[in-house]
Amino acid sequence: MYQDDGTIVRRVHFDYVLLIVTALLVMIGVIMVYSSSAVLAREKMGDGYFFLKKEIVFACIGFAMLTMATKVPYKWWKKLVYPVLGIAFVLLLLSFIPGLKNTAGGASRWVKFGPITFQPSEFAKFALVIFLAYSLEKKASRIKTFGIGFLSHVAVAGALIVMVLLQKDMGAAFMLAVIAGVMMFVAGVRVSYLAGIAVAALPAFYFLVAGVAYRRKRILAFLDPWSDRYGSGFQIIQSLVSFNEGGILGRGLGEGQQKLFYLPEAHTDFIFSVLGEEMGLIGVMAVITLFAVFFWRAVVIGLKAPDLFSRYFAFGIAIFIGLQAVFNFSVVMGLLPTKGLVLPFISYGGSALTTFLISVGVLLNISTYSKTAGEQK
Fold first, then answer.
1. 353, 345 Cβ separation under 8 angstroms
2. How many Cβ atoms sit within 10 Å of the Cβ of residue 42?
3. Are strands 107-113 and 8-10 parallel, antiparallel or unpaired?
4. Res. 105: pLDDT tops 60
5. What are phi and psi of 2, to 5 degrees?
6. Of 360, 267, 278, nearest to 313 (Cα)?
7. What pLDDT is attached to residue 99?
8. Cβ(277)–Cβ(243) below 8 Å
9. Tens digits of per-residue pLDDT, 12-51?
10. 229-265, pLDDT tens digit by residue?
11. Taking the CB of residue 224, how many other CB atoms lie within 10 A of it?
């Protein structure tokens, strides 16, 4: 280790546990993407390896970006806060432009650049984390005030949330709200302000759910999926069947039946259901344990971080990835209504995977710094 400025030292090694856990999750993801998509790819694309090959490319790009992120001193991200935030807003705007937007299921959640399809909401989550980390540190002395400590952050988060809601992506909007709320709570924003805006948002939430037919059906399907077993309840029923069929040990890798056009979104949002069927309870618990270790290491990195910016940055990434995994688990197990959130590192998708891996690279860089006493020279 060597001294930087009397209060921060640079360590030689980064958090290898975090890196190993991340690599294991990505490896599991690549395997499960192939297992869950091979039949679909063969039927729709004429190539059973179509999604596998793309996911391997995504993983290689993601790990290359992770490596670059580990080399970038975390303080440099302060200079990139507003460019990153601006890019997030621009990408979200592009998702509304004909010719660039890629609409599926009535939702415009993707931007298409030639052969490349990108989901801006994933990048928006990262952008919100870095903005809040920077702004919460900068305004730490006034964090208890309504205008500076609370409203200024709610305004930016709210703008991102509104744009994502216009894409008809309530799952991503919910995640943005949770990220903002938890990060502001950790930074010391008054709980009364946070509770107040949560209560104030309830009428809007009710309208967004009850006032939109397909969302209302999702809530009813969550409460009683069998009431519409061939409609809104079909997906969650097939997901629960997957876990039931998996038992303790699972059917065996590649032997799952629900992925054979019974379970919608088998290689994306509901890939954990396929894993449950093929790898059983043991596989399910192994993956949950890996995510628990990931969250633990991310929080430890935040606790040992040398300043408020790096601490909030690490905590924000922990919330972003950890809670998204929890929400995905809860949805596929019928504990929450369907939201359309991918499982980090495991679900198919390039924009999500690269964003997650860049975030891990930032965590690894922060882990190489530690606070030390000024007299240690």
1. yes
2. 13
3. unpaired
4. no
5. -135, 155
6. 360
7. 72
8. yes
9. 488 999 999 999 999 999 999 999 999 999 998 888 999 9
10. 888 888 899 999 999 999 999 999 988 888 888 888 8
11. 10
How many CA atoms are closer than 13 Å to the CA of 365, on its beta-carbon side?
A: 22
Select from 87, 105, 86, 108 the least CA-distant residue to 97.
108
| DSSP string for 296-341 | HHHHHHHHT-SSHHHHHHHHHHHHHHHHHHHHHHHHHTTSS-----
Taking the domains of the chain in order of start, what are their residue ranges? 2-371
**CB neighbours of residue 209 within 10 Å:** 14
Q: Is 85 helix (H, G, I), strand (E, B) or coil?
A: helix
369 or 67, greater pLDDT? 67
Residues β-bridged to residue 108:
none
Q: What's the CA gap between 20 and 77, in Å, rounded? A: 24
Integer Cα distance of 239 and 275 in angstroms: 11
Beta-carbon-side half-sphere exposure of residue 323 (alpha carbons within 13 Å): 20
Judged on CB neighbours under 10 Å (0-12, 13-18, 19+), 279 is buried
